[in-house]
Every structure is written in structure tokens, then in C-alpha cells.
Amino acid sequence: MTHPYLAALEGGLIVSCQAYPAEPMRHPETMTQIAEAAVRGGAVGIRAQGIADIRSIHERVALPQIGLWKDGADDVFITPTLEHALAVIAAGAQIVAIDGTRRARPDGLTLAETIARIHEQTSALVMADVGSVADGIAAHEAGADCVGTTLCGYTGERPKSVGPDLEVLRELASTLPIPVIAEGRVHTPAQASACIDAGAFAVVVGTAITHPTTITTWFADAVAR
């Protein structure tokens, strides 16, 4: 039976409300307002980064929230330790996204140990952000409740595709018994639809909805002569 948090996301759009460091929109109130706007547009869930943002969105948006904490610049930086994960959950995230690759974690725990302790200490679910089919299979074996294709093209294991990595998505969706969520470089409605066709349980879109700097660049480059 699918957990209620995941059931609410099935077949829908999750909007990733994040701003890069030093950007004008890097503020919890701004990210919360974007999340509220996403709800009006039909989002079924929110993905957010940082304790302040997660807490603010949790207080004002009545949708399942996938929370994460980016810390560090290299290798494992998406909710890299158990301590980070527990803080994200305490801030209000019902699902915590963690680095789900087979790389060594900064606190010395294995992925399986991290997931087990999260499940033992909280009622939250774990989304493992992976970069390959092998990562996804290992994350499932480690106890993840769902996996996301978030890191495909960013770990050195696979080339960075122009759009979402449909190959990995398709293989994971046909192999794993847990939900596989498409995330990463989903820039158009057509690409989001293709992810569903490839077997995605749900689709995360961030940049194309919530990052005006990048969106402006797309248009500025298109009209430049």
C-alpha cells in the first residue's frame, strides 16, 4: 500500500522552490510565496531547500513537502548527514531528500544506516536522489521509500543529458517496486509529459517555474542578435 504522503503525489507535479545563494529571491518569504502560487497552479507537492524555507512553507502550504539541506560544494551535499536529515524533518518536511548515491557520506554512515535511523527516529519518508540505475537499485536495497533521478549527469557516472535522463528513469521505473520520481532538467511541459510516459510516479520541476534568472536568460539569448 502506498504511503499517504506519496499517494498524494502520484501522477502529479511537484514544484521545487529554491533560489541559489546570493540571488535576490533567496528569502524564506519569497520561496513561500512561490510555493503558494504553485498550489494555485495545480502542484501536488513542494520541494524546498534550507531549514528556514522548509519551516515557512510548512506553516502556510498544506501539501506534502520534500525537504533538503544543501551543505558543501563537492560530491555529497544534498542533506549529506543524518544530522542534516533530522533537522530538515524537524522543520516540517514530511519527506526528506538525501543524497542516495553510492558515494561515501561525510558523517561516515552508510546510506542504509542513515535511512534506518531516520525511520527509527521519525515518521518521515526518505527520497534518495540518485545519479544512475545502479544508485537507484542500491538506494532501494538500503531502504529508501522513493528515488529521484535528481543527480543524473552530476556524479560523473553518466553524461549530462539536455533534458531529463529518460533512459535511467525508464529503467528504474520498470525495475523498482518503489516510486521513481523524475527530477532534473525538466524544462518544458512536453518533457514533463515524457517523464510520465517513461514511468515516472511524479515529476519535479524547479528552474523552469521558479528561477526567473535562468528563464530570462533563455529568452534573452533567443532574441539576441
UniProtKB/TrEMBL annotation:
Chemical reaction(s) catalysed: an N-acyl-D-glucosamine 6-phosphate = an N-acyl-D-mannosamine 6-phosphate
EC number(s) per entry: 5.1.3.9
Pathway note: Amino-sugar metabolism; N-acetylneuraminate degradation; D-fructose 6-phosphate from N-acetylneuraminate: step 3/5
Keyword list, A-Z: Carbohydrate metabolism, Isomerase
GO terms, molecular function: N-acylglucosamine-6-phosphate 2-epimerase activity
Gene Ontology, cellular component aspect: cytosol
Domain of life assignment: Bacteria
Keyword set includes S-adenosyl-L-methionine: no
GO biological process, one term: N-acetylmannosamine catabolic process
Enzyme class: isomerase
InterPro entries xrefs: Aldolase_TIM, NanE, RibuloseP-bd_barrel
Functional description taken from the UniProt entry: Converts N-acetylmannosamine-6-phosphate (ManNAc-6-P) to N-acetylglucosamine-6-phosphate (GlcNAc-6-P).
NCBIfam families attached to this UniProt entry: PRK01130.1
PANTHER family, per database record: N-ACETYLMANNOSAMINE-6-PHOSPHATE 2-EPIMERASE-RELATED
Family designation: Belongs to the NanE family.
Protein name: Putative N-acetylmannosamine-6-phosphate 2-epimerase
Gene: nanE
